[in-house]
């Protein structure tokens, strides 16, 4: 009787994995929030766990707004927020872990370089629709924009002084990787993504070229030294000033001990 | 074997053992309707223990419906209503509180198309036995052999009992179904045109089998084949449509029906068919 | 030969070509897609990849915890959804009369369920299982959420399969004096088993490939789970994370996807063997 | 008179169990819709339900909640995908049962089942990296209704094919033999006898596939361009309701988040509407004992 067998298997599984009732752990932290930050924080957590036996840190994703909401409701100890906190979020304690610059990318087949801020505005408002209008070949421009609410969109819009409703895009994307792949696959597309991501792909041979969003050259170095303005903070937030293990974990995340991990994720350690 | 009989007895509700004069099955004014449509009206028929009764007549005049009443397979038909009096060994077959499961173990049914389950031959035969509570393997094996021998299938299949029943020929399948019905030692075996889907040779084998089954149980057989009715039956009942409703126009021994019919319909039907 | 006959022969040839053409296109598209995955991913796969934990957010090390989490989550989903689905299908086909409005409503409700996007299941599971029922981010929450998701697939497949069981089997079983519930469990369900297994294969495939519903329920933790109440990242979530959130994770995403596809092929193969075995035991269609 | 009201306790228990299964199964949708409705209520009460249908544009942060372009986008992508995958899936099933040699059929079936288990993000990546650039070279921007339809068709093809295959396999072989005995050609038997005879199962296959299509998220998010607009051609980008949720949920708060749940609710209504249409167009031939 397959049904019965399935049930038996399920029960066996339940016995093999009994609920952890009162197991020997001294502290458990739950961290939720931005998926951009999750791989980094997850790696930091592994290293922290190894250094502090008995501590367990569960990292969950779901977006920056979830990080804020979960911390406020007490579901999570720490929230990951990949943007500047909004005025109505000043009840939270903010700890910046890393920074992430935003730069324009085009395909390597595209000869147009550089782009002025006005030209970018022209492209994103639909005034410039063909690369020939700004010295390129006669090809229609494919404008890649981010979805409403994304923090890179906010930074971009702030930088070019546009409202969301002004933008005339052809493709709307979610994550940075999607932006890179769209531009890599379409020689006449333009988009904006995390500088670290773009740098990695440019080095790895993906046909994308990074361009500055403003006068300063777009490099992670310039983001690190603070000269490149279009960058977002990657934050760990708590409802109250952090205490105990949470405080230690946040301090650890901001310490030089994890800078290699931050570089591994192509972000920039935040200046202390 | 003794075990099986004991089990079969257990499942047989105690009934008053009728005297030889009392018929095993007694129908009085039985009518069947499907919704508003009446298909069988006012059927009265006695069937004696140990006899073979053939229900004959053209298609669509209620023979199968009547058969369905005898083991309450009509329950499966939505909005089917049966009225009148129908008794098996004195027990009321139309009692809505009757245990139909127990009834169907006493009254077996063979379908027009052989319907072995899509399992192995052994599993086909094991199922009803296990269902009747025969837990141990040996009595089951013994019963299977006994019944397969009874239908003459043992020599043909004993070395491939674990093969698919569906791989058997049509005639073998039908004999397997009969063996399956015999396992529970039914008092009555209902057969709904058991040979009509078979080739003549398989049909003849099954027909011969019916003769040998007489000693084990009472048989009621629906058939369109008048020659077959003459060969296997003791008594015949001719069903006929009257005003769109099936009923019995004449019943009697095979001799009466075929050689001295009282009704002109019978005479014409028998003559037309004989000629 | 008449023109009519010629035309008919031409139609036959066109139809035959089309019937061979469709699988050819499908195979070509799949081969293309698979080749893509193999090309990018095969280089990363070795024994260590299957037996060690991930390092550097998945760009080193292996996927062992994800394999275990996936197996547990899918097992929970099947263990919960399969009995429910088969029970519901039996109810619809064998118990309720075909005209019953209850049956129609159950079927409709499951059809609507089948069309809900998986992210809605994820948010639902998060709210109901993780928060309201207090299971937190756990394999259990994930499994239960997946169960809700695959329920319509399993139910529809089981229902269709039971409808295909020949009436002869049904009546035969009842005429043998089997009570209805025994006729169903001993005869009708075994007859319908191949179709139920086909549905199960689809359901398991869907469950193994699911991402959005699990991000919010079984979670993101890439540790080897030690309890059903632990959070655990499944293979599909890992693939998604590597390809969307981890810069430079593409090759590892493809490698993980390749393992996932391999795992599914093995599961589908085993299930189809089981189905074949059942059919060989029966091998008959009256 | 049916045995639903049996006097046997075992059977009564059995039927009760089945009833509970059915109840639990149908309660699932009530719970899912319930949760979605509760979450959607703030946006519905602030903006009013009609705003979601009549507003011009989708700018939830600026209080504009027009879902109509996305409703149309969802319908077009799903129907397009089904229009491709439906016939192809059915032909695939016919191929397995009536054309292919046994070994080929076995291999093909396994292949289809493998297709069903590829995570949608892999379909999405493939579409994004391979298919979209091909279309872009021809008619930019590439990410389009067409790309969505093609990827979706490939994704739901196995659902149609596997369920249709089951349905056709279960038909009595007598049907096929009967056709052959009448001197019918193979394709006539397959498409004039077998397919019509299996229509209940084929309808199930299509309904399941449509469900999958309407709810598909990740793959479409990567290839359709996600632009909220009424497409004027196959090469125009569109956004589907499910992609809308996945795209914006991560950063959405308050009314914006609630508005995304309205997308989910609208999607459920869309599925219900599709079912009504399906029931009207093809009243299903549910058979039963007798």
TrEMBL record, chain A:
The keyword Glycosyltransferase does not apply. CDD domains: PBP2_phosphate_like_1. Coiled coil: none annotated. The keyword Protein transport does not apply. InterPro entries: PBP_domain, Phosphate_ABC_transporter. SUPFAM superfamilies: Periplasmic binding protein-like II. Residues 1-23 form the signal peptide. Transmembrane segments: none annotated. Gene3D superfamilies: Periplasmic binding protein-like II. Keywords: Signal. It comes from Azospirillum brasilense. Residues 23-256 form the PBP domain. This is Phosphate ABC transporter substrate-binding protein (PhoT family).
TrEMBL record, chain B:
Residues 25-270 form the ABC transporter domain. GO terms for biological process: phosphate ion transmembrane transport. It comes from the Bacteria. Keywords: ATP-binding, Nucleotide-binding, Phosphate transport, Transport. InterPro entries: AAA+_ATPase (IPR003593), ABC_transporter-like_ATP-bd (IPR003439), ABC_transporter-like_CS (IPR017871), P-loop_NTPase (IPR027417), PstB-like (IPR005670). One of its GO terms (cellular component) is membrane. GO terms for molecular function: ATP binding; ATP hydrolysis activity; phosphate transmembrane transporter activity. PANTHER family: ABC TRANSPORTER I FAMILY MEMBER 17. This is Phosphate ABC transporter ATP-binding protein (PhoT family). It comes from Azospirillum brasilense.
Automatic annotation (TrEMBL), chain C:
One of its GO terms (biological process) is phosphate ion transmembrane transport. One of its GO terms (cellular component) is plasma membrane. One of its GO terms (molecular function) is phosphate transmembrane transporter activity. PROSITE patterns: ABC_TM1. The chain crosses the membrane at residues 12-35, 71-97, 109-129, 135-154, 183-204, 252-274. The keyword Transmembrane helix applies. It comes from the Bacteria. It is found in: Cell inner membrane; Cell membrane. Residues 67-273 form the ABC transmembrane type-1 domain. It is a multi-pass membrane protein. Keywords: Cell membrane, Membrane, Transmembrane, Transmembrane helix, Transport. InterPro entries: MetI-like (IPR000515), MetI-like_sf (IPR035906), Phosphate_PstA (IPR005672). Belongs to the binding-protein-dependent transport system permease family. CysTW subfamily. This is Phosphate transport system permease protein PstA. It comes from Azospirillum brasilense. The lineage of its organism: Bacteria, Pseudomonadati, Pseudomonadota, Alphaproteobacteria, Rhodospirillales.
Automatic annotation (TrEMBL), chain D:
The keyword Membrane applies. GO terms for molecular function: phosphate transmembrane transporter activity. Residues 71-278 form the ABC transmembrane type-1 domain. InterPro entries: MetI-like, MetI-like_sf, Phosphate_PstC, Phosphate_Transport_Permease. It is found in: Cell inner membrane; Cell membrane. One of its GO terms (cellular component) is plasma membrane. Keywords: Cell inner membrane, Cell membrane, Membrane, Phosphate transport, Transmembrane, Transmembrane helix, Transport. The keyword rRNA processing does not apply. The chain crosses the membrane at residues 12-35, 70-95, 115-139, 145-168, 259-282. It is a multi-pass membrane protein. One of its GO terms (biological process) is phosphate ion transport. Its main location: membrane. PANTHER family: PHOSPHATE TRANSPORT SYSTEM PERMEASE PROTEIN PST, PHOSPHATE TRANSPORT SYSTEM PERMEASE PROTEIN PSTC. Part of the binding-protein-dependent transport system for phosphate; probably responsible for the translocation of the substrate across the membrane. Belongs to the binding-protein-dependent transport system permease family. CysTW subfamily. This is Phosphate transport system permease protein.
